[in-house]
Amino acid sequence: MTPAPSSVPPSAPSPDHESTAAPVEPHRVLVLNSGSSSVKYQLLDMRDRSRLASGLVERIGEETSRLVHTPLTGGGAEPRERTGRIADHDEALKAAAEELAADGLGLDSPELAAIGHRVVHGGLRFSAPTVITDEVLKEIERLVPVAPLHNPANITGIRTAQALRPDLPQVAVFDTAFHTTMPEAAARYAIDVETADAHRIRRYGFHGTSHAYVSRKTAELLGKTPEEVNVIVLHLGNGASASAVAGGRCVETSMGLTPLEGLVMGTRSGDIDPAVTFHLKRVAGMSADEIDVLLNKKSGLVGLCGDNDMRVIRRRIDEGDEQASLAFDIYIHRLKKYIGAYTAVLGRVDAVAFTAGVGENAAPVREAAIAGLEELGMAVDASLNSVRSPQPRLISPEYARVAVAVVPTDEELEIAEQTFALVSRGNADSPVHSDN
Ligand code: AMP
């Protein structure tokens, strides 16, 4: 696996590109989500929004690296797997490119319109998808201090993809972008303004691509435009966040400077008295890094009961496990507080939408979170709630004033849509706000 730099493996003949056909407009988008030791990718055909292939490279840099590539054209085929050390992101992306090429979907194809990158932190500057220039990349680098775990990996992914296809537009789609419409009253912490501004300390919010997609899909489900509805989106995955979306604009979200704030998550504590951290330092003698690990990796559901998978927690509750039961109750209590708070923030709520791994699949979480909220106009119909489906659907009874919905999220599709829209209309108007 040592192809020359800046080269992509040549494609096998494309399944939808016959040699006699007229030149085809570029219509594919590769979506890349680069983590510190993993790269997830999806190739989409934007003519019909279909997926052509998806894959995951994990444990990059270890002896036990693994690539799983799933071809999805023509009814799909069995996933293919490679194991053995993949040294870095460069090798990972080249291995993915080889797998795509073997399916006739090589990155050298003229059908590829752009590469869309998930970038976690765009600060205040990037409020929309942006074509990546040297200057944009520098700005993403400048934001590393507020996203030390995420932005470096995203930057590595971008540089690697640029080296592979230097001629192709590369677009950054920011997790924070959707939340840049939050009013100052919601975005500022009540701390000394000079200190906050000097260190860019404010509430940025994350999961924005999902909140944007789900709030729009929820409006669609209600037969309305996004401008006509106020929606509370509950993105409940291993990471979890809530947002209040008024007329298509985010006005409040639960994550803050980092993804640690807000809801109880799989491994993160969510809201906590900041004095707990001083206490841990002074009394327990823990370092800042140890506290960071405790609150981000060893708290939330895993800290409370040892498991962070909601399926396992529900099974334990069914078997009478009190620790799992208490963890579930704490999780739900926090969720309910946010639903109440966001109802107050919005004034009028048209819909509550559950999404992500837990929100889409865990009927008991949805039932418990909405239970007792009849005074807010919210209720869940037990039989509708028990339906399993990949489609957006209502789970509230007809009489309920507020629609409660399950709306599967699709961050890759949203990144591809935003990327394709930007490159299709030209990139003259990539919006850049005043500096933060
Ligand atoms: P995500 O981060 O959106 O991929 O969500 C991952 C989480 O979703 C897992 O940690 C589980 O807690 C939860 N999850 C996935 N499938 C189910 C399911 N069928 N029932 C309950 N929870 C689920």
Automatic annotation (TrEMBL):
InterPro entries: Ac/propionate_kinase, Aliphatic_acid_kin_short-chain, Aliphatic_acid_kinase_CS, ATPase_NBD. SUPFAM superfamilies: Actin-like ATPase domain. Its EC number is 2.7.2.1. Mg(2+). Can also accept Mn(2+). It comes from the Bacteria. Keywords: ATP-binding, Cytoplasm, Kinase, Magnesium, Metal-binding, Nucleotide-binding, Transferase. Pfam families: Acetate_kinase (PF00871). The record marks 207, 268 as: Transition state stabilizer. Its main location: cytoplasm. One of its GO terms (molecular function) is kinase activity. Substrate binds at residue 118. Residues 1-23 are annotated as: Disordered. Catalyzes the formation of acetyl phosphate from acetate and ATP. Can also catalyze the reverse reaction. Homodimer. This is Acetate kinase.
